[in-house]
Structure formats: structure tokens, C-alpha cells
Amino acid sequence: MFHRMGRRAAEPSEMQRRYSALSAQLEGQVPPEIERAPAEPEHAESSTTVDDFLPPELRVPSHDQLDGRMTSWKQPLVIDGEMVACAECGAYRDWLILSTRDQIWLRCRAGHQQQEIRLDTAWYNRHTGAEGTRHATFEDCLRHLGH
Fold it and tell me: What predicted TM-score, i.e. pTM, was given to this entire model?
């Protein structure tokens, strides 16, 4: 009884035989759509290349053109179930969160800064909105955010 199943599996099934016959019949044939397509696309000499559709004043700078980004965070910051507090003054709310060189820094209202290694740039991007303004200096940005 068990030997019959082994013999059956060794022989190709009816479906396998039909597939082999059909693939042999279709071998070497090319679909009509491919035959009608030109071998090489013709280049139009009259077309002009447009550098970008946005005027320069509306373009968003890329990450390598910025020294960093920052946003205000008014509520307490909780990471891994632990509320973050300033190491120097103990403040636990009203943070500035700075993202620069793939590092996240926290700045309290008193001006103390500490690196937060549990956060990364991906976290910053998920929790902040679109950038509205750009500032020439760090101090200008601090003034803009009220710190």
C-alpha cells in the first residue's frame, strides 16, 4: 500500500504533463504588444528639462542643509513609563526638544541642556509637525519659541 503512493509521486501528474506541453508550445512566441513597441525610445530634441516646479522661496531645505530642528513640548515628557526631569533644576515640563546630528537634546526653561539617548530622530519626526519657520541662529529660534 505505501509503495503505490511512492510510485504515484515519482510519475508526473496529468496537470504537470499539460503544463509542460503548453509551455513547450508557447516557447519562442512573443506577445503582440511587445512586437509593436519600439526597440529604443526616441528622444525628443525639443523637450526642455524643468529643474523644479517650486520657486526657491517655497522649497523646504533638506536635512543636510539644516544644523538642527527644535520644537516646544509643554506637557511632561514620559519615556518608557518614566517622567523626564532636568538633571540640574528638576523641571519636568515646558521643554524645548532639539534634534541635531541624529541626537535629541532637551532644554528646560532655565536653560539647562541634557542629551536624551532614549529618543531618536524618528521619534522626533513622529511627534512634531511641519516646520513653519527657519532661523539664522540658535538664539533667534529660542526667542521665537519663548525661551
Answer: 0.54
